[in-house]
Known about the structure:
- The chain has helices at about 1-10, 20, 25-35, 35-50, 95-105, 115-120, 130-145, 165-175, 180-185, 200-220, 225-250, 255-270, 275-280, 280-290, 290-300, and strands at about 65-70, 70-80, 80-85, 90-95, 110, 125-130, 155, 160-165, 310-315.
- By secondary structure, the chain is an alpha/beta fold.
Amino acid sequence: AALLARLLGDHGLVFIDPEKLRPLARPLLRRCIQRPSEVITQIEDKANELKASGLKPFVSPRFPLFLLRNGSRDHLSPSERGLRIDGGGPELDQQELLELLESSPEKFSAGALLRPIIQDYLLPSVATIGGPAEVGYYAQLAQLSSWLDVPTPRILLRLQASILEEEGSRAWSELGLDPGRLAAAQCAEDLVDTGEDRPELSELGRITERLEEVGGNLVKENPGSRSLERGLRKAQGAIGRLENRIRKLQARSHAPAWKNAGTLWKELLPQDTLQERHWGYLHLIASHGTGWIDELLENLSADPFSPRHRLLRLNA
């Protein structure tokens, strides 16, 4: 917190110690402890609603409260007497839990679906900015939030950005890429402009069209034949993999461009994961100081609520 305050305090970032606020959350925790089965109902109903609309819930629908004891964080689940320690643990008397909440609220820890509601209860806000997972949580907790009489704020997606250092920035310039092509790329080879496709790719395209024609006729003659459908999918998949392999080999034959594409890809997706999942901000501070933070915030301020992914080039 001290480090972040030093780096971002001048920009208005405020830090709050959740331990100081935990006692103020007693009313919400008390209601959850008193009526655990209703809490589960709110969560499960919303999860089923999401599934019915084709969405997958981010968080499993379970009771969102933990008990801190003996150095561990034990999940609580509904039982006949009230709540019990999950996984075959002891059953806990509801009245004893309520008394513990009054005397030691710091012994209770909210789960992923209750934590944002407590935050909105203690710190009402016009909007909440979150990452992809946090935004997903809010899709699940609207019903529980309403049951607890806590208004849900507007939800905004946080800044998403990739940073190019010297080599990556130089590779970007030499490739002459536009952001759209980069966003659509599935691998480094997709960043190489290979010109016209090889004749083999056109031939494979004709084979694919013929296979779809022949396969369609066979399926009509043999409706419901799973083995025939599996065979067709297998053949189509094999042709698709062969096409991808040829395209990759074609891209790699353009030596200078392929080298730049590999450099750019490794920098944007280190170990095939997003930069934010691989690098910490200290990596960039160690290499470039702190000036890039102001540059990024200036870039952000021009259009602060845009969900687009931003690209920042350092020492280009």
